[in-house]
Amino acid sequence: MSIGENNLQGLNGGQRLAVKYFVVALALFGAQLLFGLLAGLQYLKPDLLYGVLDFSVNRMVHINAMVVWMLYGFIGSVYWLLEDESGTNVVGLKLGNLAFWVLTAAVGVVVLVYLFVQIGPGTDTTLWLINEGREYIEAPRWADIGIVACVLIFFFNVAATFMKGRWSGIAGVLVLDLVALAGLYLAGMFYTTNVSVDQYWWWWVIHLWVEATWEVLVGCIMAWGLIQTLGAKRRIVQTWLYIEVALMFGSGILGLGHHYFWIGTPEYWLTIGGFFSALEPVPLVAMVVHAVYDAGSHGFRSSNHPALAWLIAHAFGNFFGAGVWGFMHTLPQINLYTHGTQWSASHGHLAFFGAYATINIAVFYIAVQGARGGVWMSAHLPGNGWKWKWALALLNVGVVGMTVALLIAGYEQSFVERAIEGSTWAGYFAGQNHPWFLQAMHWRMIFGWVTLLGFALLVWDLFTIGAGETREARDVHPGEAATA
Ligand code: HEM
Ligand code: HEM
Ligand SMILES: [Fe+2]
Q1: Which atom, in ligand 2's list, is nearest to the CA of 59?
Q2: Which of 91, 177, 218, 404 is the most exposed place for a label (fewest CB within 10 A)?
Q3: Residue nearest atom 21 in ligand 2 by C-alpha distance
Q4: Residue 379: phi, psi to the nearest 5?
Q5: 36 pLDDT exceeds 50?
């Protein structure tokens, strides 16, 4: 395959399918940011687009686009590594392609309905055709069923391909994790009229996804990514992976209790949720140690500098966003004051970005390198690689800046509205109108624009890096057969 030119034909079938997923993921990432900015502007100017595109709609599109682009990124990542890892062709590639188009068409229709129909009466028709009303997974029932069908095809492809080819430790963990991930989605699909019961099951999807199954999934991608970009030893990364998975499930599953403090569930959840979720940062520390250990033991000699930088950003972002920012408000004694304030939004932004946006971007860079025929992406890139470095810096500074602004707002809300005013109606408005809150909302916007700028640079870089490069990628697997 020729070096430095776009050469999708040189990729294997799974990788070509992955590229499609990545392109849609990037488009939805852009949409996420635009709708986030709109929702943020509406905090400052509540009249903006009122009655046309309300805050509730923009917020919904913002977070749904996020969940979907990350799922696209993950599915793409697994297809990207599938043939190399299994040593054989994807079993049902045609079916996989069909599922991609069906899923993408469904996502398109859902977004159009969100934007143009928006709401309906509280009936079954609304539930089936417009919106299910469950935060993050608002997609109407027909789309739910379509999503499940497409995910099952994906799962079949992954499991059957490993069965036909060879299994590895990473493959085993990955397949078991996908069973859990797909299964949990079902918990968010049935409807009850009791809000407590509804929330009880809904959290099975939301919490058990991001704090158990997605974490294990990115653990697999990280393990594979370290082998790819650093030439890390498989024996070592797999051992780490097993330890991390055990710790993650050990703390994350019952950590679910931190969402059962105040929704009408029995009181024992205060103890269970507080205790187990306080342990959740432990595997995240292990992941940082793992990544830094591996990068260090190879003297940071990597075949793909942008990807390695984003993998390291993932290790730290996961630890701070999920581990530290999560821990801050996870004890019931503290959550009593912080629950549902901007504190949660602060944690939500840093955790989703730090844990999941980062690792997806790392795989995008690995894919670009492959799509250009395996070009050099280590030191001494043209222009000293300023685009990827600035994209990395601006995106991280943007999100951290928003996080800090929201944390200040959340701190102020907990203090003024909850602690001083005792959670009264008047206290709510005192909290909302406090100068610290108002200023924080402006700072969130400023850093939001920085984030957008970083994203624009990222897209530009992904479409240009490696073009015209004639050097081959640094070999990080000396003595072994090249794998990608
Ligand atoms: C990557 C992993 C994680 C992600 C993506 C994440 C994301 C989020 C998001 C978006 C929310 C707000 C949910 C809502 O809309 O109500 C939330 C809430 C929460 N998270 Fe996390 N989280 C992660 C890990 C953690 C960890 C490890 C902990 C504890 C150590 C934690 C503790 C909490 C708590 C206590 C709440 C409830 C906040 C409230 O009472 O309003 N999270 N998380
Ligand atoms: C362009 C920058 C962004 C802006 C201006 C922005 C703005 C917003 C706004 C206004 C909300 C609604 C908050 C509320 O209900 O009070 C929100 C929610 C949320 N955003 Fe963003 N956002 C941006 C980027 C991001 C990124 C990069 C991520 C993660 C990858 C993200 C993840 C989330 C999550 C998880 C929520 C729900 C939080 C919760 O339920 O507490 N946002 N965002
Ligand atoms: Fe949680």
Answers
A1: 12
A2: 404
A3: 36
A4: -65, 170
A5: yes
* Alpha carbons 406 and 424: distance in angstroms, whole number: 22
Q: Pick from 63, 399, 455 the residue to mutate for probing ligand 2's pocket: most ligand atoms within 8 Å of its CB.
A: 63
| Ligand number with the minimum distance to the CA of 205 | 3
Residue 480 has pLDDT above 70, yes or no: no
Q: For residue 417, what are the contacts with CB-CB under 8 A and spacing of at least 6?
A: 341, 423, 427, 428, 430, 431, 432
Tokens of 464: 């240009």
What percent of the chain stands above pLDDT 70?
Answer: 98
| pLDDT tens readout for residues 7-35 | 788 899 999 999 999 999 999 999 999 99
Show Cβ contacts of residue 474 under 8 Å, excluding neighbours closer than 6 positions.
301, 302, 303, 376, 378
Q: Which atom of ligand 2 is nearest to the CA of 399?
A: 27
State how far Cα 65 lies from the chain centre. Answer: 11
Q: CA–CA separation, 90 vs 83, rounded Å?
A: 6
Cβ–ligand 2 distance for 31 under 6 Å, the answer no
Cα 147 to chain center, whole Å? 18
Cα of 344 vs centre of ligand 1, distance in Å, is: 7
The verdict on the CB of residue 36 being under 6 Å from ligand 2 is yes
Average pLDDT over residues 296-319: 94
Please identify, by atom number, the ligand 1 atom nearest to the C-alpha of residue 322.
24
Cβ contact 36:62 at 8 Å: yes
d(CA 33, CA 37): 6
Enter the pTM of the model: 0.97
How far, in Å, are 281, 329, 372 from residue 324 at the CA level?
Answer: 7, 9, 38
Q: What is the mean pLDDT of the chain?
A: 95
pLDDT of residue 482 exceeding 60, the answer is no
List, as one string, the DSSP characters of 137-199: ----HHHHHHHHHHHHHHHHHHHHHHHHS---HHHHHHHHHHHHHHHHHHTTT---S-HHHHH
Residue 365 Ramachandran class (φ > 0 left, ψ -120 to 50 alpha, else beta): alpha
